[in-house]
Design brief:
The complex is a heterodimer. Chain A contains eleven helices and two strands, in the order H-H-H-H-H-H-H-H-E-E-H-H-H. Chain A is an all-alpha fold. Chain A has two domains: about 1-140 and about 260-285, no CATH class; about 145-260, no CATH class. In chain A, helix 4 (about 75-95) runs antiparallel to helix 5, helix 5 runs antiparallel to helix 11 and helix 7 (about 165-175) packs antiparallel against helix 9. The two termini of chain A are about 45 Å apart. Chain B is α+β, with helices and mostly antiparallel strands. Among the domains of chain B are: about 1-120, Tumour Suppressor Smad4 (Sandwich); about 360-475, no CATH class. In chain B, the strands form six sheets. Chain B has a seven-stranded mixed beta sheet, with no helix packed on it. In chain B, strands 4-3-5-6-9 form a five-stranded mixed beta sheet, with no helix packed on it. A two-stranded antiparallel sheet of chain B has the order 13-14. Classes of the chains: A mainly alpha, B alpha+beta.
Chain lengths: ~290, ~575
């Protein structure tokens, strides 16, 4: 994916974007008007129109990629153009401002546009960085496969826990059912483990990393005089450790998927904010012409 | 209550029965529930069954709902035969056997596929974690349009709305300002409508000339119809809201666009030479020379290029600068004096131009108008040649009749000899008067034709008439401004010597025009794009709005000078008045 959309058709859109940027910079350097550079000169209007058209088209990608029947290019091609022309937009729009900024609607529109583009850069970086880490983390397994492993572990845990005595069985069952993966988006991104366990005498305590339940089992192991029970508890603690590692890997997977996608929740809403500000910018500029 | 729970196994084996005794049966995913629901989609504690008289009451205690007989509910009374779906598990009330108040049949969710479903209980996507795209997108769009377009836009609807938004922290139309106003316009504050009168229309010239009442045309539209100028708005050149704020364009390209080829732009109506750059393409200066035509309008102005053969001032004055500026000095009535340029040429209070030269102020100290060596304090009046002969006659008549030397009191002809007869007295007096007239004529001829007047003036002797000889002193008129089509400020040039531009020390004649030619200026001043010398553009010397033209009144085509206020002025005044009254 990463290789493909950036190098789509030998980076065709890279060259288009470069050409657009070069022409914009060239015109800006060449045009020498009596007044300070400004969006209202002929070049200002030209660059502004190009930038506005680009913004609308870039936002249209969101529509196009859901339009499975469309024959207008491939989504991959669109993505490639989206990335490169979106980057060129920095040049075109900045030259349109004539480097005049202020506390006004116009600079707001520009700022929102820059946030969108920079969040897009984060997206490209994320797509370059995280997929390989995800594969590395899960060993190529899908998340349902990992959860099937967890379920398998849980079945073993249940059998062993019954041999460990009723207290242990209840505690292990509690640890299993109060296992939490994910949570709020922040918890997902921070890989928080909000698992809990109901322990006799202690009540509901945090079971992050299965630590509390493992400690509880080991406590019982220490107190155990029964050989068979001791063996079951030992095995139980090992299995709980495995479960903790497995869940940790799932949480890491949740985190990586979150990191891979979180920029979209900035990119998309701010893009629409930018579109609204752009509309207000164009309308207001011509209201007070 | 006494409750029998009959659990059906998924494999279809024999049902397992157990009894429950208690006030309420808790159901949920947690193992501490009275009836655990092995369904990962359900909350740890989901619902409760309580006995309510003869009824069995189901109440959902967490988020979500149960489906009783297929209908979604959060609480229901279960009659015999009613079944409630709790997630994928089903609970059916059945006839209670003896010793039990109630009986339920419980079919737990199928365990098949539970492994894959295990993970589905968690919020593992950002969307489930509280992030969204669609909602915030719409919210942003609404918020931005409301704050930055709709609210500021109320200013267009009414003046009251405009003033309300501007006076409060509400977003107003100042958010639309693309940059600060020039300092000279800041007094308008945030009243956008002071200039932006109509929405979606460019700022009109009316709003400019409402304040700039004395602004004049560049080309008199009555004389030359130049489309480029008539179709150009004030704001085309005077651009506001820029940073850096430059209201007056120094750039000369706008000028050059017409003045590079004036003939084409004026259909040959103008004889003005083309100019595009002071260094590269500018004609030699022309001076406005005064010509004595001796007609009814005695002085006419002739524009002559510096260096042209016809270049000669004809002020009718005789004045050699070189003599006056001689380093060794010049003979004056009180001995030799060495003159400096500044002794006669002084700047006006603005420091820009030179005050006019006058005889009384600048010449009379040396050029005494004495006429009789015996009477060195007696001077003739200046500027009135017609009265000089009578004055001289009177002077000499008195001298002959009263005394040769008035100071000594001794008459040249003693007309009052004791015992003398009156005939003799009359004859002597007559003789004295004749003598006086001769003396006066001789003196007049001397000063008009050789000395006092003739030193500086061109004097012609008129044909002799009955009244005797008469002279005509040709009137003197000096140019006040040599180059009226540009402006020049002596002030910034004060570190230069006068003679570095004006070759006065070599000038032997008043006919010499001592204005410097363009090359003299070009020694320091370069063109508009000059990198080394002082970059000088058109408006460094030339005005755009020429004072000799009519006032700009854009609502009147052809710009008619109007003393009355325009309709726009009146509207504006009425608006201000209304505003003041509201403020009271």
């Amino acid at each position: 994916m990463f290789e493909s959309f950036l190098t789509y058709r030998s980076g065709r859109w890279f060259w288009w974007a470069l050409a657009l940027s070069a022409v914009s910079i060239g015109l800006y350097a060449w045009h020498d008007l009596p007044d300070p550079p400004n969006g209202g000169t002929w070049l200002g209007y030209t660059l502004g129109s190009v930038a506005a058209a680009l913004i609308v088209w870039l936002i249209w990608l969101g529509r196009r990629k859901r339009d499975y029947g469309s024959k207008v290019g491939t989504v991959q091609g669109w993505t490639s153009a989206h990335v490169y022309l979106g980057t060129a937009l920095i040049i075109v729009a900045t030259l349109h401002t004539g480097f005049q900024f202020g506390w006004n609607l116009h600079t707001l529109a520009y700022t929102l546009m820059m946030i969108v583009i920079l969040s897009g850069f984060f997206g490209i970086w994320a797509y370059a960085r995280y997929p390989s880490r995800m594969t590395e983390n899960t060993g190529g397994k899908s998340r349902p496969e990992l959860y099937t492993e967890v379920a398998e572990l849980d079945r073993q845990l249940q059998r062993l826990a019954e041999k460990g005595g009723p207290e242990v069985a209840t505690a292990v069952a509690s640890a299993v059912e109060r296992t939490v993966v994910g949570g709020s988006w922040l918890a997902q991104l921070k890989r928080e483990d909000r698992s809990e366990v109901q322990l006799p005498g202690k009540g509901l305590v945090s079971n992050a990393g299965m630590a509390a339940i493992v400690d509880f089992v080991i406590e019982h192991l220490g107190a155990s005089r029964d050989g068979a029970q001791g063996e079951a508890l030992r095995e139980l603690s090992t299995l709980l450790g495995n479960r903790a590692r497995l869940l940790s890997r799932i949480r890491r997977d949740v985190q990586l998927v979150g990191l891979l996608r979180v920029w979209l929740f900035v990119h998309v809403p701010v893009a629409f904010a930018c579109l609204a500000a752009l509309t207000a910018h164009i309308v207001s500029v011509f209201i007070y012409w | 209550m006494r409750l029998l729970i009959r659990t059906l196994t998924a494999a279809g084996g024999a049902p397992q029965e157990r009894a429950f005794y208690g006030a309420q049966l808790t159901l949920g995913r947690a193992t501490d529930q009275d009836l655990p629901l092995p369904d990962r989609h359900l909350p740890l504690s989901f619902c409760e069954l309580t006995a309510d008289g003869g009824q069995l009451d189901l109440r959902v205690v967490a988020d979500g709902a149960a489906f009783v007989n297929g209908r979604r509910t959060r609480g229901a009374k279960l009659s015999i035969g009613d079944s409630a779906d709790l997630g994928a598990s089903r609970l059916t009330r059945v006839e209670a056997p003896a010793d039990f108040d109630f009986a339920i049949e419980f079919r737990p969710a199928a365990e098949v596929g539970e492994e894959g479903a295990f993970g589905s209980q968690f919020r593992q996507t950002l969307e489930l974690g509280g992030l969204a795209r669609r909602g915030p997108s719409w919210a942003f769009v609404g918020l931005i349009l409301a704050l930055f377009l709709v609210l500021p836009g109320t200013a267009l609807i009414s003046q009251d709305a405009a003033e309300l938004t501007r006076a409060t922290p509400l977003p107003d139309d100042s958010l639309w300002s693309s940059g600060p106003l020039h300092t000279s316009h800041r007094f308008m504050g945030n009243d956008c409508s002071a200039c932006h009168v109509d929405a979606f229309a460019m700022v009109r010239d009316q709003e400019c000339v409402a304040c700039h009442t004395s602004m004049t045309h560049h080309v008199d539209p009555a004389v030359h119809q130049v489309a480029e100028i008539e179709e150009t708005r004030c704001a085309s050149c005077h651009k506001e809201h820029n940073e850096p704020s430059v209201l007056v364009q120094r750039d000369q390209r706008e000028c050059a666009s017409c003045h590079g080829n004036l003939e084409a732009h004026t259909d040959g109506a103008l004889t003005l030479a083309n100019a595009t750059d002071f260094a590269a393409n500018h004609p030699e200066f022309k001076v406005s020379l005064l010509r004595d035509t001796a007609g009814e309008a005695p002085w006419t102005v002739e524009r002559v290029e510096l260096g042209a053969p016809a270049l000669a001032e004809s002020s009718n004055l005789l004045f050699p600068h070189d003599v006056h500026l001689a380093a060794e000095g010049i003979e004056g009535p009180r001995g030799d004096v060495t003159l400096q340029c500044g002794d006669c040429h002084q700047t006006d209070p603005s420091g820009a131009y030179m005050e006019p030269i006058s005889m009384e102020q600048h010449c009379a100290d040396c050029h005494l108008l004495t006429f009789d060596p015996g009477m060195p304090t007696r001077e003739l009046p200046h500027g009135e040649p017609a009265v000089l002969l009578p004055i001289l006659e009177e002077f000499y008549a008195k001298q002959t009749l009263v005394g040769a030397s008035l100071e000594a009191g001794r008459p040249a002809y003693d007309a009052r000899r004791p015992g003398g007869d009156t005939r003799m007295e009359a004859a002597l007096r007559q003789e004295a008067l004749v003598f006086a007239r001769q003396q006066a004529l001789a003196t007049a001829e001397d000063i008009f034709e050789r000395t006092t007047c003739a030193t500086c003036h061109e004097v012609e002797r008129l044909p002799e008439s009955d009244a005797g000889p008469a002279w005509h002193v040709r009137p003197v008129k000096l140019a006040k401004v040599w180059m009226p089509k540009s402006f020049f400020d002596h002030g910034p040039h004060e570190n230069e010597t006068c003679t570095s531009c004006h070759a006065a020390e070599q000038s032997e004649s008043a006919a010499d025009v001592l204005m410097p030619a363009i090359d003299s200026c070009r020694a320091c001043h370069g063109g508009g794009e000059e990198q080394v010398l002082l970059a000088s553009t058109c408006i460094d010397c030339h005005e755009f709005h020429l004072p000799q033209h009519n006032l700009l009144r854009p609502e009147v085509p052809g710009s008619v000078l109007r003393s009355a206020r325009t309709d726009f002025d009146r509207q504006r005044a009425a608006h201000r008045q209304a505003k003041r009254e509201r403020g009271r």
